[in-house]
Structures are given as structure tokens and as C-alpha cells.
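Figure 2 data, in text form.
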Amino acid sequence: MGQKVNPLGIRLGITRDWVSKWYATKKQFPLLVRTDFLVREFLKRKLVEASVSRVLIERAAKKVNITIQTARPGIVIGKKGEDIDKLRAETAKLLNMPMADVRLNIAEIRKPELDAQLVAEGIAQQIEKRVMFRRAMKRAVMSTMRSGALGMKVRMSGRLNGAEIARTEWVREGRVPLHTFRADIDYGLAEARTTYGVIGIKCWIFKGEVFDQAELERGAQAGAEAVAAAAAAAAAAAAAAAPPVAATAPAAAVPAAVAVP
């Protein structure tokens, strides 16, 4: 099952959160979904050089909060915030809303090597510059594993190196447990548009397992009980190994003085 579904969609509500948060009636729902899609496409196209990973959209009380997760916030903001003001005005026009009701937030990605979407897009850019696909994949895997990932897999499909027959190649290092729901797996998809066709790149990054609070509390309680049991066993062993203490002989009874008549 883990091989046939989107790793992000199957983990919604477990380790992943929704990228769009709003409530709508049955009539409004299709329009809002299409609007969110257009906004994301517009921002990705406008900020193609800013390494944008994902765009989070939240609607509440006729206002829209848009969070742009990027590895290069300076390109998005621009000098003295000029670029972000223009971007905010264009986004409000696309949403057909007043500019005062649209808010843009910039969230910086500290480690772009651990973001699957950015890694996939980086490989796609290298392929478009005619870098050997195996070298690009192995370089990305080494950089990600060096940054602290527990596992990574990269798969590429298409006319690799301009071959006549399309094929699929992949590289994996570490472990990527796609069947484990609590596994924090990031997934990214990018396309390299070359002169001989489109090459698709998929990237999976395993960062560890996420446990809920109850499980963490049970683990902490079990750990405390194990520590207490180990301490008791050590105390018992120390008592058994101690040398026996010699018993002191009771003092001889002193006869009472006898009065002589």
C-alpha cells in the first residue's frame, strides 16, 4: 500500500497537516479549491528563483493568510519590502479581494537539503543543465544524508541521457519505511524539461518517527520503572556481596555482691 499512494496524503492527520485550511459550503467548495490551485501556480511561477517549497493557505472571516515556505526569503521580500508588496497586490487581485484582507507571511526553511520538494527541483535544474543523472542523484543523496536524514530515495523516469527508450533509475540510502504511518516522510515531485523530453524526479526523505503524547508518556513511565527496577537490583546485589559482620559475644554476667552477716 505504501508504494501506491501519495506519502503525504496518506499521513494527513497523523504526521502531516493540511496545506489549505478553510470551511465552505457545497457550492463554494469547487471555487475555493480552484482559487487555491491558481494562487499556488501563480506564486510558484512568480518566485521560480526563490526555492519555494510549499504554499499554505488559511481562510477565516473573509480574510486570507498565505504562508510561503522558502529557502531564500530575501528574494521574496526584496529591497525594503517592495517585491512582497507587489506580490501581495497581485495575489489580492487574483483572489478578487481587497488588499487589506490578504496577508502574506514568509517562513524560512533552515535546511533545504531536508526538504524533498527543493531537493527534487534541484536535481531537475541539474538535469536541464545536462549534468549526468546518476551524478546528480548521488550528490543529492549524499548531501541529504549528511544533513541528518535517516534515509532517502530518489527515482527518475524518462529518456535519461537522451536515450531512445525511456526507463526508470533509482538510488536509495538508509531506510524509507513507506508502510509506517508514524514515519515522518517528506515527498517531492519535479519535472526536468529537456530538449529530448520531460524527465520526472520523485524524492522521498525519511526524518524519523513521530509519536503521540500518550505514547511518549507511556514510554517515559516505562523508562522510569525500568530505572527503578535496575536500582533496586543493584542495591540487592551490593547487599549480597558485602562481607558478613562478626557477632559480638554477650558480656558475662557479674554476680551481685553478697552481704556477710
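Caption note: The radius of gyration is 32 Å.
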